[in-house]
Design brief:
Blueprint lengths: L1 H9 L2 H21 L8 H12 L12 H38 L12 E4 L4 H11 L2 H4 L3 E5 L12 E4 L19 E4 L4 H12 L6 E5 L3 H10 L4 E3 L3 H10 L3 H9 L6 E6 L7 E2 H11 L3 E6 L7 E2 L6 E2 L4 E6 L16
Parallel strand pairs: 1-2, 1-4, 2-3, 4-5, 5-6
Antiparallel strand pairs: 7-12, 8-11, 9-10, 9-12
Length: 343
């Protein structure tokens, strides 16, 4: 009885459909008692009841007896219209509630895969990050999920999904963002301590994709790398860029161009297929330059390894290595003839 009263007070969908069914059956029985033989056939009755309850009233079916008309006036019309209004109101409330839950970050997306997860809210920097990710189809097509602990609404509801959590250091909260199946995770919190705690919480979910974390200090980055060598740490480079620009004019412009995805030549990466044989770097370089219009910069043998930039042509590039190149757009791996690049 307590469960029944709870459902009745909340007017759940089950209770509402039960009331509609009961009202329809009682109305049908009264019409049958009133002698409305043309209305009580199952198909005709369903059609007549829906048309009457929704106030459409085509007029092709209507009570013919005085008793049937009184049943329609006193029971069918008031009850049907009221129930229809309740149905519309509940559906509208449900849609609004769903929209509000999504906007406030209360929704969950455990079924997503191949998407991008951004952990942390840094205002303009995060908005800029979202814009850059949206400009590349590789990081935009599968969707972007923002995870933040601030009291806020979804900053880009038309483009991204939003998950609000109580603490970025809670590993269980990242299941709501589907972090285990994400293709990439970016951790960028307010300070190094929060970033470190959030990164450990993310990695506790064993994400299949690449994890990138931003730090101000190299020693904090070293703590994370000691436990998870494959994680990529990003340290501020403004001092290095400033010095390089002073030593070699225009270096800062070149660096900005290489990191921008909005226009011009950009740095990209590509994974060598797992079934590929050892490849000659010199042949790879020529294939990228003359057949694909891209310039090969170098490669890394495995995740977390130091990159080998501008290596000799005789270097052997193994399967699963990551190639880095400059091009106007991403290279389609299907266009590469891997077999022609073997020594």
């Amino acid at each position: 009885m307590r469960a029944f009263h709870r459902h009745l007070a909340l007017l759940s969908w089950g209770v509402l459909f039960a009331i509609v069914l009961l009202h329809s059956l009682v109305s049908w029985e009264l019409m049958q008692l009133a002698g409305e033989e043309k209305l009580v056939a199952p198909t005709d009755w369903f059609y007549y009841y829906i048309v009457t309850a929704t106030t459409i009233g085509y007029g092709d079916l209507s009570p013919q007896t005085p008793a049937g008309r009184w049943v329609a006036i006193l029971w069918l019309l008031p009850g049907g219209v009221t129930l229809f209004a309740m149905f519309i109101g509940k559906a509208t409330t449900g849609l609004i509630d769903t929209w509000r839950r999504r906007a406030m970050g209360k929704h969950s997306y455990p079924g997503m895969s191949g998407h991008t997860v951004i952990v942390g809210w840094m205002g303009r920097d995060t908005l800029r990050m979202l814009d850059l990710l949206a400009q590349d189809s590789v990081t935009d097509d599968e969707g972007i999920v923002l995870v933040a602990s601030e009291e806020m609404e979804n900053p880009r509801p038309e483009h991204i999904r939003f998950v609000r959590v109580e603490s970025l250091a809670d590993p269980s909260c990242y299941r709501r963002a589907g972090v285990a199946a994400a293709a990439r995770v970016i951790v960028d919190a307010a300070n190094d301590e929060q970033t470190l705690a959030a990164a450990f919480a993310v990695l506790a979910n064993k994400p299949a994709g690449h994890v990138v974390a931003t730090f101000d200090r190299a020693d904090t980055c070293a703590v994370l790398k000691a436990h998870y060598p494959a994680v990529e740490c990003v340290l501020p480079l403004h001092v290095e860029v400033l010095v390089r620009a002073a030593q070699d004019a225009g270096s800062s412009t070149v660096a900005s161009e290489l990191l921008s995805v909005a226009h011009g030549a950009t740095q990209f990466s590509l994974r060598v297929p797992s079934g590929a044989q050892a490849l000659a770097y010199g042949k790879l370089f020529n294939a990228f330059k003359h057949e694909l219009g891209a310039t090969l910069l170098g490669y890394t043998v495995a995740a977390g390894a130091e990159p080998r930039l501008n290596p000799p042509d005789s270097d052997q590039v193994a399967a699963n290595a990551t190639l880095y190149y400059i091009a106007d757009r991403r290279v389609d791996p299907a266009r590469i003839n891997w077999g022609a690049c073997t020594p």
